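Write out the bound-state structure for adenosine monophosphate.
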Amino acid sequence: MRLILLGGPGSGKGTQAKALQQRLGVPWISTGEILRQEIAYGTELGHAVRSYVEAGDLVPDDQMIALMRQRLLQPDAVNGWIIDGYPRTAFQAEELDFLLAELKQQLTQVICLDVSTAVLVARSLARARSDDTDAVIQRRIDRYQERTVPILEYYEVSKRLVRVNGDQPIEQVYQAILSAIGVV
Ligand code: AMP
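---
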């Protein structure tokens, strides 16, 4: 099973990906988590990306594409994965297709959690991570609308996209995802 979870900041991608990881027995790959760890450990990559993450801006594509290549080459990712938070730009989406072709891996499905902006803001505030101030939350939502929403069409025309109503309670979203990927 190879799944991509897309959705705005606060859409519940991480929560769903964690649950799906256990159910499907494949690793959860969260680019946001990886970046936060790199920052916490003070690595070279951490230093390079910190200002973007703290401002709610996107880390440049080159760095993200290199990071994803490295992660998908890890042995635990050979037989499947759930990627959360990637791709976020058209260029990342195209490069991911090239990478998967090179690795001879086939994407099973892209799942988009559709959540209204009001709910995104409310959930992000409730979560109150250190990077979740009002201005940062707004910037992350703006970047999602500008950069990530357009790539939904890319997956839609290639018939790889399923939309799930992410305004529902967690358990219902989870069941909707399982039925979308044919697991019951
Ligand atoms: P997330 O936990 O997925 O909301 O990601 C937290 C932050 O990490 C984002 O606000 C971005 O600054 C950065 N980030 C995560 N994934 C990506 C990506 N695919 N492209 C660019 N920046 C990213």
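---
The beta strands are 2-7, 28-30, 81-84, 109-114, 161-165.
The two ends are 14 Å apart (CA to CA).
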